[in-house]
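Structure first, sequence second, as always.
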């Protein structure tokens, strides 16, 4: 195999380009072999779409009108998709983590002003520009390892102005980097200090003011909740979901992370995109998700940082045919993890995924979890041309080996950018 640097820069491609001699891990479900592999095939773009996928020695390769790159037998996968992050925030919780490691209980840390509300204070205090600057390195880290689409939640503002500010930051980030962003309103992340003991009033604010405003300004595609004993009840989440749907927004939920509140059944009842965390999901929840086609988004980073013991029911989800995605859950407190590759690795080690399931979970299934299954997540003709060229001998190496970035080229909407040269 040629060294990675032999690939030419393709920043200024014409609108058509062809990559030949590739191992295409298509993740196309209609190709019934591992990874949907097309060995030795070629893939071409026209504009921002995949125009054609060709078998070896195709005559069309010789007559191709645009530029051609021989990738020398390297692997090509769909662009990676991180379908659950909280990457816009202010401050740091590293000192709090240090306290937790030295045995200070979380309740004491919270009493001293730590925990999620410390991030809320820091985020409220920052301007839109400051939040953009703080978030950019985290987003760049994801992009550098092959992420082409990322979901970003609000949820550290908890006022009308601050939640909208966070969503505007997410929009601004999509203009600064070659990456697609799916913004989500997570106003129901925690009860803000101004509403302690009056959670229903805060839900009223979300339902009557925030959701209509966000829908009108098209600042979010979906509405998320934290359905948990320490956050919002199923009845409160139901109100929020009903309002979201009435305003044409998708729904999803942080559910069954610490206890079983039957939040997954509620999300499925509302035809939600995804149920996330779901360590405590039971059989009824699995069946409801399977019936509704709701994606399970598993977040091994939070499981790892919190030293949880209860694992999500992967075997039951598989048996029921629930699509399973994996995401970083990038956030300052419980998953300070700006790496989808590490999240995929953890999904294998901690939750028993196969490497193929992990990669499918960060491509095809993650696309479904963001309502983009028809447009992103697999290598197929007509899909958006987001794909990655890897200097690996097997696709599993992308998930297995940490600390080395084998990404050679990142193609986003048909335009390639050499990562290593
Ligand atoms: Zn989360």
């Amino acid at each position: 195999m040629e060294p990675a640097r032999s690939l030419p820069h393709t920043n200024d491609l014409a609108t058509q380009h062809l990559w030949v001699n590739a191992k295409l891990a298509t993740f196309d479900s209609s190709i019934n072999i591992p990874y949907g592999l097309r060995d030795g095939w070629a893939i071409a773009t026209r504009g921002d779409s995949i125009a054609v996928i060709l078998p070896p020695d195709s005559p069309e390769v010789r007559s191709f009108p645009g530029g051609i790159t021989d990738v020398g037998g390297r692997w090509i996968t769909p662009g990676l998709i991180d379908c659950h992050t909280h990457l816009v925030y202010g401050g740091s919780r590293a000192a709090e983590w240090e306290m937790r490691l030295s045995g200070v209980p979380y309740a004491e840390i919270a009493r001293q002003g730590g925990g999620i509300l410390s991030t809320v204070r820091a985020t409220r205090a920052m301007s839109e520009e400051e939040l953009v600057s703080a978030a950019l390195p985290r987003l760049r880290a994801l992009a550098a390892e092959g992420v082409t689409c990322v979901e970003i939640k609000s949820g550290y503002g908890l006022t009308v102005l601050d939640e909208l500010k966070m969503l505007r930051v997410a929009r601004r980030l999509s203009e600064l980097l070659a990456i697609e962003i799916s913004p989500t309103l997570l106003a129901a992340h925690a009860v803000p200090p101004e509403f302690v003991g009056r959670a229903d009033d805060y839900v009223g604010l979300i339902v009557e003011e925030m959701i209509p405003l966000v829908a009108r300004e098209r600042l979010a595609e979906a509405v998320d909740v934290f359905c948990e004993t320490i956050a919002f009840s199923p009845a409160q989440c139901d109100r929020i979901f009903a309002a979201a749907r009435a305003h044409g927004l998708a729904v999803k939920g942080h559910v069954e992370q610490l206890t079983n509140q039957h939040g997954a059944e509620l999300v499925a009842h509302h035809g939600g995109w995804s149920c996330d965390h779901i360590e405590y999901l039971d059989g009824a929840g699995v069946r409801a998700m399977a019936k509704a086609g709701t994606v399970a988004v598993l977040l091994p980073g939070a499981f790892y940082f919190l030293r949880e013991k209860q694992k999500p029911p992967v075997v039951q989800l598989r048996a029921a045919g629930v699509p399973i995605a994996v995401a970083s859950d990038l956030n300052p407190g419980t998953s300070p993890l700006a790496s989808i590759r590490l999240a995929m690795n953890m999904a294998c080690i901690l939750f028993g995924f196969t490497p193929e399931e992990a990669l499918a979970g960060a491509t095809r299934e993650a696309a479904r979890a963001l309502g983009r299954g028809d447009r992103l997540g697999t290598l197929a003709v007509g899909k958006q041309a987001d794909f990655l060229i890897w200097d690996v001998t097997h696709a599993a190496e992308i998930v297995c080996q940490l600390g080395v970035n084998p990404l050679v080229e990142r193609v986003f909407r048909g335009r390639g950018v050499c990562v290593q040269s």
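Margin note: The first helix runs from residue 59 to 62.
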